[in-house]
Design brief:
This protein has one domain. The chain is 80% helix and 0% strand. It contains three helices and no strands. Helix 1 packs antiparallel against helix 2 and helix 1 packs antiparallel against helix 3.
Length: 82
């Protein structure tokens, strides 16, 4: 884990980028699943699968982002990390 504030802020920004990339990937997969469901008459369960798999796969990135945000807020209580 980062030891000083500059390293912590860099790790926070990197984790924020990872969360944004995960969100974009999730939206692309969701749109693809909805289009495939309509075109090939897949069951509605396919849409739920697209929600469940990213929740499990990307949970580590989201938890890491929240951890760095909490650490930054403890170092600078008056500064919003976003």
């Amino acid at each position: 884990m980062p030891s000083n504030q500059a390293q912590l802020e860099a790790a926070y920004r990197k984790s924020l980028r990872a969360v944004w990339h995960d969100l974009i990937f999730f939206l692309v997969c969701l749109i693809a699943a909805l289009v495939l469901r309509k075109l090939m008459s897949y069951p509605p369960m396919l849409s739920w699968l697209v929600f469940a798999v990213p929740a499990v796969v990307f949970a580590g990135d989201f938890v890491r982002f929240l951890y760095f945000r909490l650490k930054l807020s403890r170092i600078n209580p008056h500064q919003d990390p976003t």
